[in-house]
Amino acid sequence: MTSNFTTQEGSQSGIIEIGSNDGSQAAIGITAYDRWQYAGLSADMNYMNLSLQSDENVIEGSVSEGMVDGQPDVVVAQTRKQPGTESTTNSTIAIYWADRKQIEGYDMPAAKTKVEIISTLPENMTQSMLDTLHVAV
After folding, report:
1. Pick from 74, 90, 73, 78: nearest CA to 52
2. For residues 137 and 135, what is the distance between their CA atoms, to the nearest angstrom?
3. pLDDT in tens, 87-128
4. For a surface tag, which of 30, 62, 77, 116 has the fewest beta carbons within 10 Å of its beta carbon?
């Protein structure tokens, strides 16, 4: 497991990378913003759908909504051709806001901490990670 953290004006971010003996990996990226951000998932959902449809290396894929760490998330499951080989890789991408709150008086969610997960771990390990992940904010 390795980690890398950076600071930019208005935010701090870090990535934790996890590797397994079979070569599969997972990365958890966390971005902590100084100010509240719009935390709706519709833009992420639309972007992921468009990416799946336009990427010629995607053999099969789906975008769905779920829950991670008690918060709504967008999950992308895909099977991709590996460029230059005949092999394929299954991967999962999940995006959610760890401290998402509904703004009182408005129908709008806001948050300061965005979590993005990318995994090529076996499906059962990825699901276990998503079911037990907790980001303390």
Report:
1. 78
2. 6
3. 899 999 999 999 999 998 888 999 999 999 999 999 999 999
4. 62
Please state, in angstroms and rounded to a whole number, the distance separating the CA atoms of residues 62 and 78.
6
The whole-angstrom separation of Cα 90 and Cα 94 is: 14
Q: What is the pLDDT of residues 29-40, one digit of tens each?
A: 999 999 999 999
Contact of 71 with 59, CB cutoff 8 Å: no
> Where exactly are the structural domains of the chain?
2-132
Given pLDDT bands bounded at 50, 70 and 90, which one contains residue 9?
confident
H-type alpha helices, 5-133 = 42-54, 123-132
Euclidean distance between the first and the last CA atom of the chain, given in angstroms as a whole number: 21
CATH number for the domain running over 2-132: 3.40.1000
Using CA atoms, how far apart are residues 102 and 106, in angstroms rounded to an integer? 8
CB-based contacts of 77: which residues, under 8 Å, 6+ apart? 61, 62, 64, 90, 91, 92
Measured CA to CA, the distance from residue 49 to residue 133 in angstroms comes to 24
Alpha carbons 112 and 114: distance in angstroms, whole number: 7
